[in-house]
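Journal club prep — side note

Before the paper discussion, L.F. wants everyone to see what a predicted structure for a comparable chain looks like in token form. Sequence:
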Amino acid sequence: MSGTPNTVPARVELLRARAVLLVAVLVLVAAGAAAIVTSRPPAPAAADVPPSAFSSARATGTVAALADRPRPIGSAASDRARDGLAVRLRAMGLQTSTTPSVGTFAGDGVQSVGVVDNVVATRRGSAPTGAVVLMAHYDSVPAGPGAADDASGVAAILETVRALSTGPALRNDLVVLLTDGEESGLLGARAFTRADPLRGRPAVVLNWEARGSGGPALLFQTSPGNARLIDAYRAVQHPAGHSALAAAYALLPNDTDLSPFLAAGRPGLNSAFVERASRYHTPGDTPANLDPASAQQQGTSMLALTQVLGAADLAPFDPAVSGAPPSGDVTYAAVFGHLWVYPDGYVLPLAALAALAVVGAGVATLRRRLVTPGRCAGALASWPVVVGVAALLGEGAWRVLAWSRSGYANSAGVVHRPELTQVGVLLLGLLALLLWGVLLRRRLGAAAMGLAATAWLAVLGIVTAVLVPGASFLFALPALGAALGIGVAVFVPPLWRPLPVAVGGLATAVLLVPFSVALFDAAGLAGSALPALCVVLALAPLAALVAGRRLPTRVPVAVLVAAVGLGALGVLVDRPDAAHPDRADLAYLHDTDSGTARWVSRDPVPAPWTARYVTGEPTAPGRDLPWPADTPIRTGPAPVVGLPAPAAVARRLPGGAVELRVGSRRGADVLGVRADTGGVTSVEVTYVGRRPVVLPVQGRLNLRLFAVPRGGARIVLRTDSPAPQRLVVRDQTTGLSGISGWTPRPPELERSPTRDGDTVVITRSVTG
């Protein structure tokens, strides 16, 4: 009985402490959730909104008409789309042309050439200082109808032009550029920039893209010296994106039509929505799967930007042409529906200020005897291990997922319903943080662990300030806030310390938590290591909150069970069906030199349907396996069909060059030429009736010819070797229905988005 009076106050104190901690955690969770929720696209507008407003209902009607079938370069569907778009633009009073030209691309071990039909339309301004260029591409990949990529961008441009026509004329010229051949190497955009009809005039290029079927329309790339462009972007009612996305985008193997303009020194902005990427470049990129809210945000952003830039003096925006002083760069981020901007000149000082704040917090905790130098050193040394463990857990989760189902492995984890699995991966990051607290709390203490996590954020802020200035805010601002929170917390009673730490961690929750989630859109579940790692950084303030409390072992065990359970449930929920099919890659290759034919698949783990055609381990293409791509493939025996080999005649020219004339005897409009060895330094391509184009060759020749006319092409290879060149010529058509033994996929499978999927490839070799 003598212990009872002390037991009751102790329990009350424990309950109060847990209540304060719960409030602090809820503050951080609510802030992160609010940042995610407020970034969602606005509600779509109906067709009966005022004529001067953008309506996604009107725009998606255009998408439905345009994206009823695939429109690859050179196809009849592409021609119909081109002609229909030109008719609509002329009907709106724009001067419109569709002059064919030849586009080229050389890079990444591939050289591409194709005849493109850009649709270019102009509405003259009342007193132009330059031109505002609205750009999207109207072609699609052969695999799908391209409703989001990029019929949505084309439709948004048409709806924007219509809305603008209801008001007074813009001051500046409005140029609509609907490019062809984007999916084949940005051929239309490259042809336009090479001809440069805007030569000598200031211009700002606004490109509109999609890498998924929904989500916010993100501003993910700007030209250098973006201060004036971002100032114009302030007119957008629902801004989305931030300057760190440009750094993430640079790591992806993607490119857009804006790239040739940036290379030519033109200013511009790149916008796209990237969520629901499982539909990207697949048969599922249909009008029915396009999110009308994303189309609405894309269109309202386009309309606002066009109005602002259409009324501005464009000379300062394009100093390379006008000679005006260039503007500086700015860091920008859309948070809580507002665009926050500061000059890049503040980036390094802000990162340094965050580092000083961490030092100040450290000094304060030392003076209050809450830490020792040894504990701080131990915490600093152990924090990278925590981050590494989180990354390993994320990578391990992906390996298990890829092992569990072929559809995950074949799509790199870009799946239809990933939400539960994504939460499970993020919980693995939290697990790494909790294990840190359980194992080292008593040795290191709360203050040392919180300081260490914050100090590493500050280090990342400084490193990115030097290397990637636009991304520094993601780390410097959270480090600054967390350091201030810890600095205040050391001066308040222990019971209330979680509250200032939580307030200081608001920047972390608002910036890094949404960024952690967004990384899944960029890398899919195959990149689970990145969001798992990033969520540890995002939860750095939580380290100071939980490390000072006694953390029962059952807490991390519960988190582990929840992570595994959500992952397993996510796989069950995401089972393939007709509405959410897995991918299955298959193609047909006939090598007329050997007289053999093979089924070909690039799938790492073939589905049962695919395994009927291909067997064995992946093999690298080579002399005996003349497949056009370099990635490893699985093969299986296939029947030889009676299709003629491509026409190919080679001869040596005076001076050592090799002339090659190629064509398709079966009407294929895609041809290719590969060299077995290096030695080719450049290639000149002449389509019948067109001027020749010259491309440099780095490494081996791997030439792709698109929209080849019936008369074929003349190719001249410049070499640095007198040795004979063995050249493999191929022609390529889409569709396997005519091949004996092929049966349609079951409903739960769809064709792969790979360029060479579902193709019939016929090859032969010549020597010149």
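L.F.'s comment for the group: The two ends are 103 Å apart (CA to CA). Keep this in mind when we get to the figures.
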